[in-house]
Structures are given as structure tokens and as C-alpha cells.
Amino acid sequence: MRLLFAKYRHVFNVGLQNNIVYRWNFAMRAAFSLVHLAFVFILWSAAYRGETEIGGFSLNETLTYFVSLLVLQFFIGAFSEDYEISEEIRSGLINQFLTKPINYFVYRFTVFIAARLVSGLLALIPLTLALPLIGQYLSFPDEVWRLLLGLPAAFMSAMIQFTIAYIFGLL
Questions:
Q1: Exposure on the CB side of residue 115, measured as CA atoms within 13 A
Q2: Nearest to 67, CA basis, from 133, 116, 159
Q3: For the chain, which terminal residue's Cβ has fewer other Cβ atoms within 10 angstroms, N or C?
Q4: Helix-strand-coil split of the chain, %, nearest 5
Q5: Cα(68)–Cα(33) distance, rounded to whole angstroms?
Q6: CA distance 65 to 139
Q7: What's this model's pTM, rounded to 2 decimal places?
Q8: Where do the H-state alpha helices sit in 48-99?
Q9: Tens digit of pLDDT for each residue in 86-137?
Q10: d(Cα 164, Cα 171) in Å, to the nearest integer?
């Protein structure tokens, strides 16, 4: 069991290194997400002008939802996994995995987790810089258990997105 984890830990480290090489791509995507965030703030501020609630939600709750969604997309979104898998199949690179004692699904999932960790952390940098400007508009729940329940839900969402991308990549 320990050997199994050591093998995939090495895959995770290589995945981290490969994704850090392309950090400029993730940094630009995260920076442009701030433009998206600015438009969301402008749009919803205009929609709430003269209203305290729409559909039972306040402006702060709506903006918190969109900021959370923006951050979560970088942590759980399967951006190019299906393309990478289909490219490995098309070019024949998948043969190197089929002839070795490696579970291809676990290998791709490990690379996916490494990529999501890098892109998620890079997305937090511009958001942290914007926090002094938008912090007053965010309202998170007071109960910590709600946030703790969200972590396994986010992980399961990432697994579902990866599995769907994996299946589409195999087609």
C-alpha cells in the first residue's frame, strides 16, 4: 500500500511541476476572472438598486455566491483533461501506461488534482489582492460546520467533473 502511494505521490509532484511551468496561463485566467467579477458586481448592484432582496437573497449573499463560484471553478473545473486523454490515445502515448502497473484513471486523477491545486491557489492571489475592495460585500455563514460540509461536496464535484471529462476523453 505504501508503495502504491509513493508511485502516485511522484505522479502528483510531476503534475505540480508541469502545471507550475504553465503558471502564466493560469495567472492570466485568474486575472481575467477579476474582470468577470467586476462585471458581476456592476450587474448585480444595478439589479439590486432600490431593492433589499431579490428572491429572498440580499446583494451581499448574491455576490458571495458568485465569488465562491469563481474560486471553486479553478479548484474543481476539468478544463482540458478530456482533450489530453484523447490526445494520448490518438498519439499512442497511452501504450506506455497500459504496459506498466499503473492505473490510468488514478494516474490522470492525480495529475488533475495537481493541476487544480496550482490553478486554485493562483486564482486566490488576485482575489486576495481585491479583497480589501470587495470584502465588505461578502457575507459568509457564521457556522463553521456549513463550510466544513462544503469541502467534501467540492471534492466530490471535482471527482464528478473529472470522471465525465475522463469518459469523454476515452470516446
A1: 20
A2: 133
A3: N
A4: 80, 0, 20
A5: 12
A6: 9
A7: 0.80
A8: 59-76, 81-91, 95-98
A9: 998 999 888 888 888 888 898 899 889 988 888 888 788 888 888 898 889 8
A10: 11
